[in-house]
Amino acid sequence: MSAPKSDPPTADRAYFAAFLDLRGKPAVVVGGGPVAALKAETLLRSGARVTLIAPQACARVAELELAGALRHMAKRFEPADLAGADIAIAATDDQAVNEAVARTARGLRIPVNVADNAALSSFIMPSIVDRSPLQIAISSGGASPVLARKLRAMIEALVPFAYGRVAALAGRFRAASRRRFPDPEAHRRFWEEVLDGPVAEMALAGREQAAVDALEKLVSGASEQPIAQGMVYLVGAGPGNPELLTLRALKVMQQAEVVLFDNLVAPAIVELARRDAERLYVGKQRDRHALEQDEINALMVRLAKQGRRVVRLKGGDPFIFGRGAEEIETLAAHGIAFEVVPGITAASGAAAYAGIPLTHRDCAHSCVFVTGHLKDGTLALNWDALAQPRQTLVVYMGVHGLAPLCEQLMAHGLAGSTPAALVENATFASQRVVAATLAELPARAAEQGVRPPALVIVGEVVRLRNALAWYEPGARGEPQPAAEGAGVASG
Ligand code: SAH
Q1: What is this structure's pTM?
Q2: What gap in Å lies between CA 237 and CA 244, rounded to an integer?
Q3: Confidence class for position 489, pLDDT limits 50, 70, 90
Q4: In the CATH scheme, what is the homologous superfamily, with its name and number, of domain 347-468?
Q5: Mean pLDDT over residues 20-30, rounded?
Q6: Where are the domains of the chain?
Q7: Closest Cα to atom 18 of ligand 1
Q8: Which candidate, 441, 485, 481, places its Cα nearest to that of 459?
Q9: CA 127 to CA 2: how far, in whole Å?
Q10: Residues lining ligand 1, CB < 6 A?
């Protein structure tokens, strides 16, 4: 049977994409300005031996020459300068010189690029997403450099920096793996499994030595691919607005098999988990079915032991009033691998979005985070330490205990006129800021019906809000917090 015939390809690509090996190869850059210097540096990064030709050169070129990185010939360009070169780049502001370089290079069949002049160039330089040894090259073929730049920004955000590490690790073992799997098909399968499995996971999480050890065993045949071992990611989901997630948080969510979340995590954030991930509400709200802390811990252990990739989403930062430590202590006790992904804590989110800096050279040299959670109806805090001048106080879970909080601070020396604010639903479209004095805040909060989640901020910095507030809550299409009354138990 003959394969169906298909037409020969049409020439619909502007350029032939390729990566050149220039290590140790002679390269010539003509021009002495900052653009020429940049081109020279790009060549140097690829290991080329660069000669730069220009009667005068900028400071950067002088630096590079002084460091022994390139050779600068202080002269005008002549065709003989390209003899023996593997590649040429012209970046002068003299069109005639650029044309001469292009003509000479083409005559000698040397690839040539003229800065900002695709017509004179035989090759163009793409923009690069660099995860060396991985490189992603992007070009719009000159059609829209701005679009290419946007695409580059998207890819930059998408590809973990650690991919370079994983690629380098794979590179180190490539010769050995080829010896072990002489059959190319088996060799390919080996790497597919490795790169989908725990070894890659360890490298991505920065556990380089563990990855090397495991890979050494696999390549030497001393062990089978370790059975996909479960792993728990304790992820800070930030104060609520999904834009404030970290790249790492987004990445692990997109690989999650199970996501455990509670009421402080906005639905829009839970949405960002991998589409087929199982989503389990383990919230801490009295009126919805929820698990106790030790049940959550036990559930994570059970899921991980089944080999699942579990993301435990926490509001804000997991290590700030998030019981993150308790959760991973249990994991550690069971020998389960975990990673902690920090998040923007509510204090940072509220400060930024309410225009209240937490420190300031003039009026706040320290900042203290405390929990205002009532225990048996009272607040057990070190009041003398909190009622200090030139200090910002941020109270988490302080809505229900607001009145005793303000009273105690005044009783321990803070003036009733000290500025204070409540930031409700910080970073959400429904954010509200109620600002008053310490003496008046409880009454104002009650009038306005402030409800959790909200943060109390006390200190002179609250005044700066008048000048620094920039966020306009309520813009349409902005994210909303979880259910009505989110954070009840933590209020
Ligand atoms: N780990 C979290 C804090 C959990 S404690 C973090 O780092 O932010 C819960 C308290 O955080 C709430 O009672 C409230 O005081 C505060 N909080 C969380 N999200 C908030 C938000 N979007 N706006 C205001 N306060 C918030």
Answers
A1: 0.69
A2: 8
A3: very low
A4: Tetrapyrrole methylase, C-terminal domain (3.30.950.10)
A5: 97
A6: 26-125, 163-220, 231-344, 347-468
A7: 346
A8: 441
A9: 42
A10: 239-240, 264, 314-317, 320-322, 345-346, 350, 396-397, 423, 425-427, 452-455, 487, 490-491
Mean pLDDT, range 348-376, rounded to an integer? 95
Integer angstrom CA distances of residue 485 from 276, 285, 353, 491: 28, 9, 21, 9
pLDDT at residue 394, as a whole number? 98
Residue type, 78: E
- Are 84 and 68 a contacting pair, CB within 8 Å? no
Q: How far is the CA of 346 from the centre of ligand 1 (A)?
A: 5
pLDDT at 144 over 60: yes
Residue 63: partners with Cβ closer than 8 Å, 6 or more residues away = none
Q: Which of 455, 457, 488 gets mutated to test ligand 1 (max ligand atoms within 8 A of its CB)?
A: 455
For residue 17, the CA-to-ligand 1 centroid distance in Å is 50
Residue pair 43/30 in contact by the 8 Å Cβ criterion: no
Q: What is the pLDDT of residues 423-449, one digit of tens each?
A: 999 999 999 999 999 999 999 999 999
Q: Reduced to 3 DSSP states, what percent helix, strand and coil does the chain have, rounded to the nearest 5?
A: 35, 20, 45
Active site residues: 262, 284
User: Domain 231-344, what architecture?
Assistant: 3-Layer(aba) Sandwich (3.40)
- Class (C level, CATH) for 163-220: mainly alpha
- The CATH class for the domain spanning 26-125 reads alpha beta
Mutate to test the pocket of ligand 1, among 234, 370, 396 (most ligand atoms within 8 A of CB): 396
Q: Is the torsion defined by CA of 83, 84, 86, 92 positive or negative?
A: negative
